């Protein structure tokens, strides 16, 4: 019997550990295919909601935000790059890499979820790729529309979402909801509204959690 699992994936596209965690989760789901059928819904979380237009240099941002040295910041980026590569995802950090406000990206993700879970998942991957692999300007409307099109979504509709302010209230409400539930860092992956897996965990950690759920007695 195939077990259905609900997965709420709370994350931000400016978070490299989020794509590492997503890659691990998807590998785990591939390992349990036939045993577990999961539907992933991506939930919004902004690491830098007050980021100004145009963003900020990533190295400067990390130094300012957590007080690390430039050497520590560079080492951290190298570690992240290697961890991502081990999952099959390419992160191209450079001295010019920037972090951007991601609110509009979250609005597009909310819209994509109305289209289908598959389209939201495709858009999430496309946004991570645009930000971390290609180093695109993630608070630019033209960039976001192009990313949506690459994910198989309608570019005209995506532009209308961005220019109209659609889903602003819904995204704010979702962000507040997850914070009210104690989510203060990402990624936070909640399985069946019961099990929490935090951080950019490897596939083994997700597989263990999924198999724990599959082994639970079925409620009568």
What this model shows, in words?
This protein is an alpha+beta fold and 220 residues long. It has one domain: 3-Layer(aba) Sandwich (Glutaredoxin), CATH 3.40.30. Helix content is 54%, strand content 14%. It is built from 9 helices and 6 strands; from the N terminus they run βαββααβαααααββα. A 4-stranded mixed sheet has the order 2-1-5-6. The chain has a two-stranded antiparallel ribbon with strand order 3-4. Helix 5 packs across helix 6 and helix 6 packs antiparallel against helix 7. The radius of gyration is 17 Å and the shape is globular. The model has no long low-confidence stretch (mean pLDDT 95).
Topology:
Blueprint: E1 3-11, H1 16-31, E2 36-44, E3 56-57, H2 58-66, H3 70-87, E4 98-99, H4 103-115, H5 117-133, H6 141-150, H7 155-164, H8 168-180, E5 188-191, E6 195-198, H9 203-215
Parallel strand pairs: 1-2
Antiparallel strand pairs: 1-5, 3-4, 5-6
CATH topology description? Glutaredoxin
Query: Per the principal axes of the C-alpha atoms, what is the gross shape?
Result: globular
Instruction: Just name the CATH architecture.
Output: 3-Layer(aba) Sandwich
Q: Give the count of helical stretches.
A: 9
Helix content: 40-55%
What kind of sheet is the major sheet? 4 strands, mixed
Write a brief caption for the model.
The chain has 220 residues and is α+β, with helices and mostly antiparallel strands. It contains 9 helices and 6 strands.
Task: Offer a few descriptive terms.
220 residues; 6 strands; two-stranded antiparallel sheet; Glutaredoxin; 9 helices; alpha+beta; four-stranded mixed sheet
